[in-house]
């Protein structure tokens, strides 16, 4: 068997092991289970992490990316790069806020899909599957992505999107949505308070590529009962982590001015 075929077989065995595992595995556990040389296992893991198929957590533990298990599917290209950059930042943001964190990107029709997450350790917490897409007009991630568009494209989206009241708090007035989008652009972050689901509040901030283009948004999903008392602390942590993401992704330009809140 040539080396290429052997490496392909090992990659598949490693993916299968991570898929079976109920919790993240250490390098030592992986080496013991698969009987690979430590250097080979480490290199294979780094390849999977860099392509977005696996996630490295601190301390050095590895798990399958949830998008490959129950989400939108195998990742590649830009999404894989964003996931690799985002995962340690999502973990830090989760630990700093105590709440679940997500990375969202645009999907067809100006909708939103989440491609990575780090779930809160609290007993009562917000969680969501990495599957499908959801509307932009009422979600914090979606409003951040809409705020990066030209006014003409925002108008086209609002004219084509069916505005549904998911809860009594969902804003469906197009003029008010435009005002919220403008406020999001000014503040540099967005809030959706029980507009998608009762009991869940979301905060999001944009992340950029090296040219300064918005390519996604970091999101903190908060149990509403904890939202009001922790609002400013969560916003500060969110903005700091979004800036860290930008720097890791090569964007060193100025971030939007933050108004008094």
From TrEMBL:
<dbReference type="InterPro" id="IPR050707">
    <property type="entry name" value="HTH_MetabolicPath_Reg"/>
</dbReference>
<feature type="domain" description="HTH iclR-type">
    <location>
        <begin position="5"/>
        <end position="66"/>
    </location>
</feature>
<dbReference type="Pfam" id="PF09339">
    <property type="entry name" value="HTH_IclR"/>
</dbReference>
<keyword id="KW-0238">DNA-binding</keyword>
<dbReference type="GO" id="GO:0045892">
    <property type="term" value="P:negative regulation of DNA-templated transcription"/>
</dbReference>
<dbReference type="InterPro" id="IPR005471">
    <property type="entry name" value="Tscrpt_reg_IclR_N"/>
</dbReference>
<keyword id="KW-0804">Transcription</keyword>
<feature type="domain" description="IclR-ED">
    <location>
        <begin position="66"/>
        <end position="251"/>
    </location>
</feature>
<keyword id="KW-0614">Plasmid</keyword>
<dbReference type="Pfam" id="PF01614">
    <property type="entry name" value="IclR_C"/>
</dbReference>
<protein>
    <submittedName>
        <fullName>IclR family transcriptional regulator</fullName>
    </submittedName>
</protein>
<dbReference type="InterPro" id="IPR014757">
    <property type="entry name" value="Tscrpt_reg_IclR_C"/>
</dbReference>
<keyword id="KW-0805">Transcription regulation</keyword>
<dbReference type="GO" id="GO:0003700">
    <property type="term" value="F:DNA-binding transcription factor activity"/>
</dbReference>
<dbReference type="InterPro" id="IPR029016">
    <property type="entry name" value="GAF-like_dom_sf"/>
</dbReference>
<dbReference type="InterPro" id="IPR036390">
    <property type="entry name" value="WH_DNA-bd_sf"/>
</dbReference>
<dbReference type="InterPro" id="IPR036388">
    <property type="entry name" value="WH-like_DNA-bd_sf"/>
</dbReference>
<dbReference type="GO" id="GO:0003677">
    <property type="term" value="F:DNA binding"/>
</dbReference>
């Amino acid at each position: 068997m040539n080396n290429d075929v052997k490496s392909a077989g090992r990659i598949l065995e490693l993916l299968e092991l991570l898929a079976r595992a109920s919790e993240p595995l250490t390098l030592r556990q992986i080496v013991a289970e698969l009987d690979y040389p430590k250097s080979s296992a480490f290199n294979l893991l780094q390849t999977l992490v860099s392509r977005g198929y696996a996630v490295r957590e601190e301390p050095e533990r590895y798990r399958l990316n949830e998008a490959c298990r129950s989400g939108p599917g195998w990742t590649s290209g830009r999404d894989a790069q964003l996931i690799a950059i985002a995962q340690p930042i999502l973990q830090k943001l989760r630990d700093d806020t105590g709440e679940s964190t997500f990375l969202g990107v645009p999907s067809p029709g100006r909708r939103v899909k989440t491609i990575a997450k780090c779930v809160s350790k609290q007993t009562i917490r917000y969680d969501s599957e990495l599957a499908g897409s959801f509307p932009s007009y009422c979600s914090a991630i979606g409003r951040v992505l809409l705020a990066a568009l030209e006014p003409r494209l925002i108008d086209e989206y609002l004219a084509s999107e069916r505005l549904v009241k998911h809860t009594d708090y969902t804003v469906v007035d197009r003029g008010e949505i435009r005002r919220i989008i403008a406020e999001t652009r000014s503040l540099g972050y967005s809030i959706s308070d029980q507009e998608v689901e009762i009991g869940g509040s979301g905060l999001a901030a944009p992340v950029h590529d090296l040219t300064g283009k918005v390519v996604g948004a970091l999101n903190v999903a908060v149990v509403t009962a904890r939202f009001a008392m922790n609002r400013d602390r969560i916003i500060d942590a969110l903005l700091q982590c979004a800036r860290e993401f930008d720097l890791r992704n090569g964007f060193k330009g100025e971030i939007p001015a933050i108004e008094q809140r």
